Amino acid sequence: MHPHRERPQECEECGKSFRVRAHLICHQRIHTGERHYKCGECGMSFRSSFNLTQHQNIHTGEKPYKCGECGKSFSQSSSLIVHRTIHTGRSPTNVLCGKGFRISSSLLLHQRIHRERPFHCPDCGQGFKQNSTLVRHQHMHSRERPYECPQCGKSFSQGSALTQHQERHL
Fold it and tell me: Which positions fall inside the C2H2-type domain (predicted)?
């Protein structure tokens, strides 16, 4: 057995399994909304050090993402993806929500909405893009598990976790 591998561990929220505990811990931030990696320049926070490092390229001016077709460089991989549509002729699509655009500049403007977080948790101050995500996050603070399996009685803090759990009874 590999020394850094452990027995598969399951996320209690959604049932997804991980062989490495560190990967499970990182994954669980999706459910809790935790963002431990904060940019010292602008205060934006991120779930992973990779995302923080990629973001910091904006402030440093570093452009490590280079187009293989024309050689133009970008600070963000998402900007390179949008740029490539010039060469492929395909309309640019937002990888976060799947929304398509006729021109790449419209996509770049649209991507700003994914960075705004107007709904804030009164307990910890964390911001969320949608109120429903904030409500799910607040279950973590209250330890409330309002979604109960009618077959076995196990409770979950998120409805999606209950749905996945119920598939096991089938």
Answer: 9-36, 37-64, 65-92, 119-146, 147-170
